[in-house]
Specification:
The protein is an alpha/beta fold. The structure holds pyridoxal-5'-phosphate.
Length: 394
């Protein structure tokens, strides 16, 4: 297939336009059920803390195999509430990855804690346990691994370090709802259920996404669950009795209903992403100019993103532009490591301190990834990529 026109429309080729994330086609399949649920909520005007919120939280807890799910306003709030509930104090050091979405470090800094960034593993893009160990000091209180792009961080090593040094583990599972981690003894746990607290986001493009903002906290600990509920509710346990300073972070009822309708499909959604990734792997693994994503043996990768590493010889900007011209969106997650971001730059860090993260920021490229990629779009994407990459040598 070759396109002459710049704008790819369905009428040109019969193929659905390719999007980084296609939420419209996914919505059509659940529209009837969701519209009934929304009509009920609208009729009852149960917009805040309606019955769907508790129902969804309970269903998600069952799915994850976790004692408590505490819904909140978004993934960033979840991370913040986790650090507040654990009683972290200004000056406490929190170790996290240099290669992530900034929200992870943002809340650490916002609470006047000290973010301590560390490098990642070049194959999985996830936090490197050896680097975490080197970064531990007497002031360290917590580790925040991010299950990046839908693949669990090496939790056994991280939990082991945390136990040995008396640290909390707060999992940033915003990109990994439904991903699994397998411990060496064969025990399998869902992302976000292994540390003291797990945090997730229901931003529309996440693996389990709503139609606005949403988030949740997970914990196995009854006392922490109570604390988290209090933190996200203005520090109240009893109405109008504020025992401590909290915040206001709620999942609204309309969003809870979206999530409750989608939850039974989550495994199928993640399997569809894995099938698309399998296709990409098969089609692209022979190409000398790129590396396909590495799947760690301990993780069930659910491909929030399908992220290639391009060879140094490839001009990434030129390739991205050529793909765009062919109607194929591609994105760079993330172009700048945290230690080079203006907001998080710090005298402690120098260029070259995190060579893997820096290198990844210069060489990664993510392909379209969602639940609706079809058998016309996938070969169209890989055939064009293989053709165009050869024209983008530096
Ligand atoms: C999306 C995301 C967040 C923030 O979630 P929001 O719901 O947008 O606040 C935090 N961390 C990571 C790794 C994310 O991908």
């Amino acid at each position: 297939m070759h396109f002459r026109k710049k704008k790819i429309r369905k009428s040109d080729t019969g193929m659905e336009p390719i999007q980084m994330v296609d939420l419209r086609r996914q919505y059509r399949k659940i529209a009837a059920e969701l519209e009934t649920r929304w009509a009920d909520i609208l009729a009852q005007a149960a917009f805040i803390q309606g019955p769907d919120v508790a129902r969804f939280a309970s269903n998600l807890a069952d799915y994850l195999g976790v004692r408590h799910v505490i819904p909140c306003g978004n993934g960033t709030d979840a991370l913040q509430a986790a650090m507040m509930a654990l009683g972290l104090q200004p000056g406490d050091e929190v170790i996290t990855t240099d290669f992530t979405f900034a929200a992870t470090a943002e809340v650490i800094a916002l609470l006047r804690l000290t973010p301590v960034l560390v490098d990642v593993s070049p194959d999985t893009f996830n936090i490197d346990p050896a680097a975490v160990e080197r970064a531990i000091t007497p002031r360290t209180r917590a580790i925040v691994p991010v299950h990046l792009f839908g693949q669990c961080a090496p939790m056994r090593e991280i939990l082991d370090l945390a136990h040995r040094h008396g640290l909390y583990v707060i999992e940033d599972a915003c990109q990994a709802t439904g991903a699994e981690y397998t411990f060496p003894d064969g025990r399998r746990c869902k992302a976000g259920t292994m540390g003291e607290i797990g945090c997730t986001s229901f931003f529309p493009s996440k693996n389990l996404g709503c139609y606005g903002d949403g988030g949740a906290l997970f914990t196995q600990d009854d006392r922490l669950a109570g604390k988290l509920r209090q933190v996200v509710n203005h520090g109240m346990k009893v109405r109008y009795r504020h025992d401590e300073i909290g915040c206001n972070s709620r999942l609204d009822t309309l969003q809870a209903a979206v999530l409750d309708v989608k939850l039974p499909h989550l495994d199928a959604y993640n399997a569809a992403r894995r099938r698309a990734a399998d296709f990409y792997d098969r089609a692209l693994s022979g190409c000398e100019w790129l590396k396909t994503p590495v799947r760690a043996p301990y993780a069930t990768h659910i491909f929030h993103q399908y992220t290639l590493r391009l060879d140094d010889a490839i001009d990434r900007d030129a390739l991205q532009a050529a793909l765009k011209e062919a109607g194929i969106p591609a994105a760079v997650y993330y172009p700048v490591p945290l230690h080079k971001q203006k907001a998080y730059r710090d005298a402690r860090y120098r260029d070259g301190d995190f060579p893997v993260a820096e290198k990844l920021c210069d060489s990664v490229l993510s392909l379209p990834m969602h639940t609706e990629l079809d058998e016309e779009q996938l070969p169209y994407i890989t055939e064009n990529l293989l053709r165009l990459i050869k024209t983008c040598l530096k």
